Amino acid sequence: MKREMDDIRDLYIFDVLKMKRSLDDLASLACTLESRVNEQEDAVEGLTKETMHLAKETIDKERLREREDRLRSSNLRVIGIPEKANRENGAVDIIKEVIEENFAELEDQSLEIVSAHRIPNSVDEHRLTPRHILVKFWSADDKQRILKASRAKKEITYRGTKIRLTADLSPGTIDARSQWASVIKTLQEEGFQPRILYPAKLAFEFRGKTKVFFDIEEFKKFISDIPYLKGLLSNIY
């Protein structure tokens, strides 16, 4: 009888110890899981902070770009007019002559020039092309009228020399527009009539509709579902 009681007691103790080990294992597992959860939460929080920081930087850059573009909204760049030291008219007179030579229909619209000058101000003897002339009009509407007329005429000249007129844009907007250069060239060759809309949006004609894209990622997503365009632009993306 005593032996049987001892066996029962030993079995009970064994079961208790076994249960205790199981509880210890569970507690250890719980600690490990909690540690991993904490690590993941920290990682997510860090990623969120980094993402928020990047988003804020992007927004700040966009705001700065928009602010700079607004300040330049009435400015026009005239590109390609030769420089003749001490023998050329002042920049304001040159612009008036360009308007008279190319846009006689606008002379009656009282286009008011605030200022005009070469940029950069200093002459670089190693520069191979003439400096641009930066023109500031009284209003952005005056600048737009000239740009619209130049697009309609297509070829603009100054005393017989071909020149180019373009809006004066911030460096950020110029960079954003330049990213579309290869796409525009390819689409032009295929007759899609691509063009840049302000400030740096791509527009082109596709299946009877005008498609507009704000950035390259949006454009890449669009062409990924259209095998013809995807193949056409495969050497770019």
Provide keyphrases for this structure.
single chain; 237 residues; alpha+beta; Alpha-Beta Plaits; Rec A Protein, domain 2; five-stranded antiparallel beta sheet; three-stranded antiparallel beta sheet; 18% strand; extended; L1_RRM_dom
Word description of this protein:
By secondary structure, the protein is an alpha+beta fold. It folds into 3 domains: 1-70; 73-168, 2-Layer Sandwich (Alpha-Beta Plaits), CATH 3.30.70.1820; 173-232, 2-Layer Sandwich (Rec A Protein, domain 2). 54% of the residues lie in helices and 18% in strands. The chain is built from 7 helices and 8 strands, in the order H-E-H-E-E-H-E-E-H-H-E-E-E-H-H. It has helices at 2-71, 91-102, 140-153, 171-178, 181-189, 216-224, 227-232; strands at residues 75-79, 113-119, 132-137, 156-158, 161-167, 195-197, 201-206, 209-213. The strands form 2 sheets. It has a 5-stranded antiparallel beta sheet. The longest helix has 70 residues, at 2-71. Residues 6-10 have low confidence and may be disordered.
